[in-house]
Amino acid sequence: MTSSGGRVNRGPAVASQNRQAILDAAWRLFTERGYHVPLSAIAKEAGVGQGVLYRHFPTRLDLAFAVFEDNLAELEAIGAEPDAGAFGRLWERLVALTVDSAAFVEMAVDARRSLPDYTGGRRLQAVLEATLPRAQQAGLVGPAVTVDDVLLVHRMIYGVVVTEIEPEKVQAAVQRALRWAPFGRPVT
């Protein structure tokens, strides 16, 4: 039997490979172009048709949750470390994730607005609530700093990231902004 020369649908045999290709492409494009990159661009980058993308991820949020779940899990793992320095490592990683991919924050904002049961914000708050008191008890963070303060500074950092006109200046602008944080140190 001869092939027609077009794409051959290998069906379920490559479903897990297709899913991973979609996740990899989505991570790259969300990072490079933002959360609202066309899903058709993600499918093309992954080398799959849009139908395949939608079969795995029916909505943009489904795809973003799958892409960014690792970020939340990583932050939770850092927060689970029992030492007083966990807060500093958590903060540095949160800022780095925000600088590297503002789409991570955009996804959380979209989810909070669209899905009443979205738990990402509560998960981040819980990990901050667990680590901040340990850092304060060790004298690493002032006693007046609250979790709400930390989240406010994070939103301000996000604002710096998305409003800096020249991408090569984002890191320097974030470091300048962090000098004003009552608990943060510039991320390198």
Automatic annotation (TrEMBL):
Per the database record, which ranges form the HTH tetR-type domain? Answer: 16-75
DNA-binding region location: 38-57
Gene3D superfamilies, from UniProt?
Tetracycline Repressor, domain 2
The entry's keywords: DNA-binding, Transcription, Transcription regulation
Q: What is this protein called?
A: TetR/AcrR family transcriptional regulator
The organism is Paractinoplanes lichenicola
